[in-house]
TrEMBL record:
GO molecular function terms attached to this record: 2 iron, 2 sulfur cluster binding; metal ion binding
Organism from which the protein derives: Sediminihaliea albiluteola
Matches recorded under InterPro entries: Rieske_2Fe-2S, Rieske_2Fe-2S_sf
Keywords: 2Fe-2S, Iron, Iron-sulfur, Metal-binding
Protein name: Rieske (2Fe-2S) protein
TM region positions: none
Domain (Rieske) ranges: 3-101
Top-rank taxon, per record: Bacteria
Lineage of producing organism: Bacteria, Pseudomonadati, Pseudomonadota, Gammaproteobacteria, Cellvibrionales
Length: 109
């Protein structure tokens, strides 16, 4: 596992949302009501980007088909078509004045 820094704490504020690409991971760092979340950046239903999703009361809603997920643990709350898996969530790690994530290092071929 390796620490990947994402953002300096001083830059985070409510309504913050930013996508990060680390190797094969596309991650979305979000802050709402003082809480920070790190989730996969695409809806698992049809891979629509979630950076334009609506977020309210701990629920993120995909703009494409209005699938809803709990932002804290990624579980699927509402499906408008066939069910899909929940969102992948990632634990945030704090090092000094930065927030980041621990991810497996890419395999060497």
């Amino acid at each position: 596992m390796r620490f990947y820094p994402l953002e300096k704490l001083i830059n985070l504020h409510d309504a913050y949302i930013r996508e990060f690409k680390i190797d094969n991971f596309q991650l979305l760092l979000i802050q709402r009501k003082g809480e920070r979340y790190l989730i996969e950046a695409q809806c698992p239903h049809r891979a629509h980007p979630l950076d334009a999703a609506s977020i309210d009361n701990g629920i993120i809603q995909c703009a494409l088909h209005q699938y809803q997920f709990a932002i804290d643990d990624g579980r699927l709350l509402h499906a408008t078509e066939e069910p899909c898996r929940g969102l992948r969530t990632f634990e945030l790690v704090y090092e000094g004045n930065e927030v980041g994530v621990m991810l497996d290092e890419p395999s060497e071929f």
